[in-house]
Design a protein that fits this description.
The protein is of the alpha/beta class. 29% of the residues lie in helices and 29% in strands. The chain contains six helices and 16 strands. Strands 3-4-5-6-7-8-9 form a seven-stranded mixed beta sheet. It has a seven-stranded mixed beta sheet with strand order 10-11-12-13-14-15-16, with helices on one face. A two-stranded antiparallel sheet has the order 1-2. The N terminus is likely disordered.
Length: 306
Amino acid sequence: MMKTCLFDYPDIRDGKSINRTVLNLDYSEERSIFATEKKAFEERKDMIGTIRENIIMKLSTLISLLSLGALTLGCQSTQSQNTSTMDTFKTQSGKEVTIIPIKHASMEIRFGEVEIQVDPVIDATPPYTDYTQMPKADYILITHEHYDHLDGKAVEQLSKASTVIVTNKNSAAILGRGEVMANGDSLRLSDDIMLWAVPAYNTTEGHLQFHPKGRDNGFILELDGLRLYIAGDTEDIEEMNEVKDIDIAFLPCNQPYTMLPSQLRRAADMVKPKVLYPYHFGDTPEDAMEQAMEGSGIEVRIRNFQ
């Protein structure tokens, strides 16, 4: 539709108002153009909305995956090391004993349905360990009172009404409970579980204050005839000559607190275990321990005992 518009406006030359036809407008064309542009705008608006929704969905998915990943890593820090390197042995009557390294001096020992924890520690040494995710312990063995061996909160997390805690005098005083054993003591825990406390101490000058003689314990744990020697924090002391018939030994290897690799070899030669786990070894290179044990005839297993 065409429409002619007349406008009155002053003539700039003489100030008179003059009627003039100034514009012919085709409104149908304008409406068509407007409708086309509006449709394009709406399409762009819908496209932008779709893109935004896709971005939000992808971000939400990414956040969920990251959260799941963090949770998984958190679980792995406390749980995966408990099963990925566990070793199983047979007793004289065919019962299973499973060794589950946790870290440093901490380990779980399963003997049939019996749960034994040794020196449980939550976060004094890495990685963080959540003992609430583990079975309650029937027995908890604590060698001595140092922070990387005694953790009251870990003991609490692992304890049930019937849990028996066995430790040295100082640790029992700190915990306010526990069956106290001194070097040379023995204790029958059940018909097929026997425990002996043995010496563990430093002999190197300048290191004697770390683990004085007579204060701390190592343990010999006998499970249906299978004998485990958990040495505790010690050097290659002469009393190791009296540790006999050991199937599995856990010997520490980190100076200045325990032993050098050369001492580890001397200790192993005295104890003569069938299987040796170097433990409590911190920054001691694994290859140094393995080289020290070459030619010993003892099977050496390196596990998560840094």
